[in-house]
Amino acid sequence: MILDGKIAIITGASRGIGRAIALTLAKRGATVVINYASNAEAAEETVGQVRDNGGRALVFRANVANPTEAGALINTTLDEYGSVDILVNNAGITRDNFIVRMNDDDWDQVIGVNLKGAFNCTKAAARAMIRGRWGRIINISSVVALAGNTGQANYCAAKAGLIGLTKAMAKELGPRNITVNAVAPGFITTEMTSGLPEELKEKMLAQIPLKRFGKAGEVAELVAFLTSGAAGYISGQTIAVDGGMTCI
Ligand code: NAP
Q: Taking the domains of the chain in order of start, what are their residue ranges?
């Protein structure tokens, strides 16, 4: 149980990749805080799955784009458990459109959740990690941050911003024994990707050397490694989990 005694907050853990990360960290001994925005039923299901496996979990609703709610997520964790050791900034949304048709709201919401959400949570959690002289922060970016994608100017900008945030935080927080890394998933089967047109999915598949879409658990395994003591000398990096689609 390499994460025994560690307290981990995973934003957007009610479904998809966030849920898989929560289950994987809990299986390694971490106590997990399951954050979600609106789908309480799914969040409770994640908590149930953690507990069924013998793990410890707390659920907390917060819109990470809102600094007050993100602060409450961190403070409630501190009140309940006394520390925040691991923060996984996973919460994300898409509002796809061509740039000429993209309205301000599509832009603001995507930047707000994907990028500002990570800033809000990191700012609040970093104070606690500095006090504890240990920390692991993982930002869930995307391969589109590196390669770009038609119809996703807002999402690509937010995810590329996360890579810059990762590098800056790695430099700023490294002297306090806190590592900060980004994980860039490729095409992973979740609710986020299930609604995409079949034609687009086939096009994507053709670009993946491993000839299959990824599983949420495969992203979670990398996150678990990066949170472990074994990854203590890795910081400021962006690592893709994409079946070989992007070579950074
Ligand atoms: P998903 O299935 O759509 O789940 C999104 C999660 O984020 C849900 O738990 C949702 O909570 C939560 N969320 C949304 N807005 C939030 C907010 N304002 N505050 C707090 N939580 C919020 O997505 P996914 O595919 O698992 O993606 C997870 C992360 O990986 C995202 O950052 C995504 O951009 C990134 N990613 C995904 C892929 C992929 O192929 N799937 C590829 C690259 C990167 P509710 O259930 O309450 O709505």
A: 7-247
What's the one-letter identity of residue 27?
A: K
191, 17 Cβ separation under 8 angstroms: no
How many A from CA of 15 to the centre of ligand 1?
Answer: 7
Determine whether the shortest distance from the Cβ of 14 to ligand 1 is under 6 A. Answer: yes
Point out the ligand 1 atom lying closest to the alpha carbon of residue 13. Answer: 9
The whole-angstrom distance between residue 224's C-alpha and the CA centroid of its chain comes to: 12
Is the CB of 208 inside a 6 Å radius of any atom of ligand 1?
Answer: no
What dotted CATH number matches 7-247? 3.40.50.720
* 155 belongs to the catalytic site: yes
Query: Does the C-beta of 152 come closer than 6 Å to ligand 1?
Result: no
Region of 46 on the Ramachandran plot (φ > 0 left; ψ -120 to 50 alpha; else beta): alpha
Would you write out the chain's pLDDT as a tens digit for each of its 248 residues?
A: 699 999 999 999 999 999 999 999 999 999 999 999 999 999 999 999 999 999 999 999 999 999 999 999 999 999 999 999 999 999 999 999 999 999 999 999 999 999 999 999 999 999 999 999 999 999 999 999 999 999 999 999 999 999 999 999 999 999 999 999 999 999 999 999 998 899 999 999 999 999 999 999 999 999 999 999 999 999 999 999 999 999 76
Q: What is the 198 CA–ligand 1 centroid distance (Å)?
A: 21
CA of 62 to the centre of ligand 1 (A): 13
For the entire predicted model, the pTM comes to 0.98
